[in-house]
Write a structure and sequence with these properties.
The structure is a homodimer of 344-residue chains.
Chain A (H helix, E strand, L loop, with lengths): L2 H8 L4 E3 L2 H8 L6 E6 L2 E6 L1 H8 L5 E4 L4 H8 L3 E4 L6 H9 L3 E4 L3 H6 L4 H21 L9 H14 L10 E4 L20 E6 L2 E2 L2 E2 L2 E6 L5 H20 L6 H14 L11 E3 L6 E5 L12 E4 L2 E4 L3 E4 L2 E6 L2 E4 L12
Chain lengths: 344, 344
């Protein structure tokens, strides 16, 4: 059954799909300007002339070519009770549609829930994207770090991802060395990597629109005791989290399993983010592995498992794998070693 | 007067700034998760622990550290009549705030209008970003095109932008060769450039967060008559559009001046987009040069002037400069030649 048909089967009213990623997922059309109305017995795709030719070829979807400002013309084209995506539609667009007499019903995360469970083709695409990232980490590990700027190492990683066949990076490569690693989301800067510190490298690429995501923490010689211990704790937490991943597992419990290791080591306060997130057409998507997201993992979910410890003034350690959730546990797509790799 | 103070001077009620770009413009904080409430006599910045340390250092702004989901806690922290950004705030966030008893007033484009007029520091930053792009075009013009794939040429351009000091590309580099150039927004693919066609290259980079944007159409040997003529028409239209740019000019009239040249040549239908757009912290921002946007250009606006002609089955031609609007006309930031450059 096609994605569209599966969506139609669960709709109570027509759904106006505003998320461009959701439009792509349902129709295959990658576009910067499109809206899809999924109705019980069909679908209408609204887009402008730039995408009209490609849109015309989509099976089971009727093209409605509009001017650039699609939402300005939608009130004339739609009527009745229509569901919409409340986390995507802006207030302005919502009020335009509402003023046009459409009865709007918020329906949250419908397509996102479908996207969270990947089909065989999507899994193969993500396997390829992850294999490229994994190989890029292996190659980067052979190269010199000390004396190089974070931003140059980030560019080198980006170049490796490109050379190995990635379409583009799935997010800006993170290289956080020494004390800059105390923040989980630092931007690679002019700092030069020095001996005796950790270097967090977080990177991934896209293949066919699908993302990969991997983090390793490299070591430039003998570490201060605090970071050495942090590395051991994070590695153990990561392996514990991985071991808890399987179809049927509670996502909060998976987060909790890894977090308990960090907390027992007295470092709970230094692990200030969730354990992981889903990965697909977006680098962050459902399901989420954290203390708040209530869900049960399903075979076909693709998630990261990435505990981290960030020590003020000292640096950080994060280890992240990308895995497919199966009935038997995780299929790890990023097998590059998690032992501390000393780089030059 | 600081940006915050200028904004405060024009507010009727506190403004909740949800656009992360607007937050960056007003506070200097580049973040993936922040909300700024600008009040008559102060400002409160809501963000999570990842950005708290940097946020604490911002002058005239009080930090309120929250958990990740800022909008979930805002109803407890805000009250009374508050303006918001209706083109940015999602329906879900709007309804969360509204349910919390806040009286919400849509105020559209307030900060965007400030951002449209750049100050001296911003102009210098954009000049640097444009100089890098300009030099990258000059270098790319020396390299072989024929026999190379679009995607490899795009990567080469991206690498040049990086080597020359760009922080990152300001959008995915466009390389559209031969018939793929019939669409103004094609994605570089596996097609190999052949002799006797046009190759549209559209690229820019960021410096200090600010974008540059430039397009040139290269030629790989003798063109079919239709494309040759299209090149001449686009070049003339581009120069006519440029000549109309000055402080006080009506943005529709600038678009109209260039468009008239294309229309008089009988190619009006082949020029299906606006003449240009503002450029700054975003690659597309106010003001817009098209037939619909009603505005008068102001000294300090930074806009593109980029007519194009797209011929089905044959290819496309687009020429784009980035310019600063001054009282005396345009300051062109991308002086690389607009004559047809034949590449190997």
């Amino acid at each position: 059954m096609s994605r569209l048909a599966r969506l139609q089967a669960q709709l109570e009213e027509p759904l106006l799909v505003s998320s461009l990623v959701n439009v792509r997922y349902l129709t295959g059309l990658a576009s910067s300007n499109a809206v899809l109305l999924v109705e019980p017995d069909g679908a209408r795709l609204f887009t402008d002339f730039r995408y009209a030719e490609r849109a015309r070829e989509i099976p089971d979807v009727a093209l409605v070519e509009t001017r650039r400002d699609i939402y300005a013309v939608l009130p004339e084209l739609l009527e009745g009770r229509i569901a919409f995506e409340p986390t995507v539609l802006t207030y302005e667009r919502w009020s335009l549609l509402a003023a046009g007499g459409i009865e709007l019903v918020p329906r949250r995360g419908v397509v996102e829930a479908m996207r969270a469970v990947k089909d065989a083709g999507e899994l193969n695409t993500i396997r390829r994207a992850a294999a490229i990232a994994n190989e890029a980490f292996a190659r980067l590990a052979e190269e010199p770090f000390v004396g190089h700027r974070e931003r140059d190492l980030a560019w080198r990683m980006q170049s490796l991802l490109h050379e190995l066949g990635g379409e583009k990076e799935s997010f800006d490569v993170i290289v956080a060395s020494g004390p800059t690693g105390e923040s989980p989301h630092s931007v690679p800067g002019d700092r030069t990597v020095e001996p005796g510190e950790t270097v967090i490298v977080d990177a991934g690429c896209r293949v066919g629109g699908y993302c990969s995501d991997c983090t390793r923490t490299f070591v430039t010689g003998e570490l201060p005791a605090g970071l050495q211990r942090a590395y051991e704790v994070v590695k153990q937490a990561q392996e514990t989290g991985l071991a808890a991943v399987r179809a049927g597992a509670d996502s909060k419990a998976v987060d909790g399993a890894a977090r308990a290791v960090v907390e027992e080591a007295g470092l709970g306060d230094a692990f200030g983010h969730g354990l992981g997130h889903g990965v697909g057409l977006e680098i962050h998507e459902a399901p989420w592995l954290n203390a708040e997201w209530p869900s049960v993992l399903t075979a076909g979910n693709v998630v990261t498992v990435e505990p981290g410890v960030y020590l003020h003034g000292l640096g950080g350690v994060r280890i992240e794998d990308l895995v497919i959730v199966t009935d038997d546990g995780p299929e790890v797509l990023t097998p590059f070693t998690k032992e501390p790799v000393t780089v030059g």
